[in-house]
Amino acid sequence: EAQVTQNPRYLITVTGKKLTVTCSQNMNHEYMSWYRQDPGLGLRQIYYSMNVEVTDKGDVPEGYKVSRKEKRNFPLILESPSPNQTSLYFCASSSTGGGLYGYTFGSGTRLTVV
Amino acid sequence: AQSVTQLDSHVSVSEGTPVLLRCNYSSSYSPSLFWYVQHPNKGLQLLLKYTSAATLVKGINGFEAEFKKSETSFHLTKPSAHMSDAAEYFCVVRILFNKFYFGSGTKLNVKP
């Protein structure tokens, strides 16, 4: 089944403790992206990657890092999480940057930073 | 500046009645437009898309949307609501290759 898999689904952590949210897709998509969803704000793009070793900032990149060493994986790294990063995070992938076929989204990771 | 505005944060309809979810956009470029649906505790699923072909776009589950350039709108409609349509809906504008702007979402409630 074609899908985007995120782990974990739920995570509670403390301020300053480094964490990684994994994202993997099995569709051989070139384009991958991370979004955060906050009430009343819709989804905002954090980082995106157009292919292996090619990444760029989205609209809200502060406090996040990403890497794209393999085509299928696009982990999101929070080096020193803070409470304002409490949010619902989505990974998405597309074969054409989303323009023709839209994104395939993961099921989300709900992160709470205390 | 590019943006997308969903005019209603909540819409409530009775089962079997029409659905209208409103979306307006602003863009300096010719946009691609999408509607996504998010059911509780799920990811987002593509409902339909407009990419400069026919202005009336048909999607999954009986949904349609019409692109009106003069009104800068892309409203989502369905003739008859079903209980399973209860979800949150997002209007999305794609301006450039990698720039997508999401609306703030409209929660659709369907009453029996």
Question: How would you describe what is shown here?
Answer:
The complex is a heterodimer of chains A (114) and B (112). Chain A is mostly beta strands and 114 residues long. Chain A has strands spanning 4-7, 10-13, 19-25, 31-38, 42-51, 54-57, 65-66, 76-78, 87-94, 104-105, 109-113. The mean pLDDT of chain A is 92. In chain A, 0% of the residues lie in helices and 50% in strands. In chain A, the strands form two sheets. In chain A, strands 2, 4, 5, 6, 9, 10 and 11 form a seven-stranded mixed β-sheet that branches. In chain A, strands 1-3-8-7 form a four-stranded antiparallel β-sheet, with no helix packed on it. In chain A, a hairpin with a 3-residue loop joins β4 (31-38) and β5 (42-51). In chain A, 39% of the residues are buried. Chain B is mainly β and 112 residues long. Helices cover 0% and strands 54% of the residues of chain B. Chain B has no helices and twelve strands. In chain B, the strands form three sheets. In chain B, strands 2, 5, 6, 10, 11 and 12 form a six-stranded mixed β-sheet that branches. In chain B, a hairpin with a 4-residue loop joins β8 (64-68) and β9 (73-78). Chain B is globular. At the A-B interface, β4 and β5 of A face β5 and β6 of B.
Order of helices and strands of chain B: EEEEEEEEEEEE
Task: Kindly report the average pLDDT value of chain B.
Answer: 90
Please work out how many helical segments of chain B DSSP would assign. 0
- Poorly predicted runs of chain A are none
> Could you tell me the strand content of chain B as a percent range?
over 45%
Outline the biggest β-sheet of chain A.
7 strands, mixed
From the structure provided, what is the oligomeric state, counting identical versus distinct chains? Answer: heterodimer
Q: What composes the largest sheet of chain B?
A: 6 strands, mixed
Q: Let me know the number of strands of chain A.
A: 11
Derived from helix and strand composition plus strand pairing, the structural class of chain B reads: mainly beta
- Based on helices, strands and strand pairing, what is the structural class of chain A? mainly beta
Order of helices and strands of chain A: EEEEEEEEEEE
- Beta-strand residue fraction of chain A: over 45%
- The radius of gyration of chain B is 13 Å
Mass-distribution shape of chain B: globular
Q: How many angstroms does the end-to-end distance of chain B come to?
A: 41 Å
Query: What's the total number of strands of chain B?
Result: 12
Radius of gyration of chain A: 13 Å
